[in-house]
Amino acid sequence: MNSKQSIAKHLQILTEIFLISTKLGLTSFGGPVAHLGYFHNEYVQKRKWMDERSYADFVALCQFLPGPASSQVGIGIGLSRGGILGAIVSWLGFTLPSVLALVLFASLLQQIDIAHAGWIHGLKLVAVAIVAHALWGMVQKLTPDRSRATIAVIAAAIVLLFQTAWIQIIVILFASIVGWLLYREHTITTETEISIPISRKVAALCLSLFFLLFILLPILRPFSHWIAMFDSFYRSGSLVFGGGHVVLPLLENEFVSNGYITKEQFLAGYGMTQAVPGPLFTFAAYIGAIMNGAAGATIATIAIFLPAFLLVVGVLPFWDALRRKPYVQGAMFGINAAVVGILLAAFYHPIWTSSVIEPADFVVALLLFTMLAFWKMPPGVIVIIGAISGMILSVL
């Protein structure tokens, strides 16, 4: 293959990544756990870009790293498929739809009470079906025996009963120890390789840049309003463990407490973010737009996602070799089971508890699940049917 053919092939791959991630960015309602369900359906089941275990390992790794886990999984999949540019276009495709919606319609949506709109409730029921379908597949693959099923149930119980930002990390650490003790002699030699087409030097550079910015930005912030703004969003994105919702108090402390936006603007933006698909971290675009228009939205979006991007690119080139070691494989058995439990807990709260209120809600969610799991209908169609169903329920 000559250089022109190679460039054309790479452009084709990048275009494919962008189009698929954009489709996900337009249809992935329901929060980070639902996003992982959409990703699983698209990347694992439909396109076979990676196997079940590799995807589960991706999810488990991103649970360790600070930042938005679903966006990090998407970035990692783009990185494995198309290198650094693949990671960038994967992030752009998944993030841009909600950023544009939040920036373009901020003033309009602030005047409308969307929290109780029928179509919003329907989209919550879509999330129930999507996450249930993803969990169903993961339970079969990742908790096939009594020990791993027990780890998953205990993990779910602990996460539900002790809802703190650090509890997921603690659960995963303990599960890794239990998995190592139970399965350290059980090795797998046939798993699919996760190909990461960047060098370890580039990875090390990204990790160094992550820490360098974390240290230097607070020092440089007095010299420029833009640097101060970038630092606030970058620091918020660097310190989030346990899901996107944890970033809310950090952003409130940075921008409401310091008088950059009002409490009412903050809450209106949060409600608006819940109404659009894509990652919750795009809430930063709304805050940036209120502060400094389109330029502010751009700076805020880049700054809050940059730590997650640098960490994924910095860690993944070392990850595939590490996960093949026997003692790591045993630990991953425990971690993957714990991830199933964590997703199960998130499926119950907040997804189930905020969506299935009446018997009619359960009926709609069950029908959507049947369409997805047994009729194999595309998630985009499920989203449309769910939104329409929600509007119908709202007038009954």
UniProtKB/TrEMBL annotation:
> Pfam families per the record?
Chromate_transp
Q: According to Swiss-Prot or TrEMBL, what is its membrane topology?
A: Multi-pass membrane protein
| Record localization | Cell membrane
Residue ranges annotated as transmembrane are 84-109, 121-139, 151-182, 202-220, 232-251, 272-291, 297-319, 331-351, 363-393
Give the UniProt keywords, A-Z.
Answer: Cell membrane, Membrane, Transmembrane, Transmembrane helix
Can you tell me which family this protein belongs to?
Belongs to the chromate ion transporter (CHR) (TC 2.A.51) family.
By what name is this protein known? Chromate transporter
Q: Which organism is it from?
A: Bacillus bruguierae
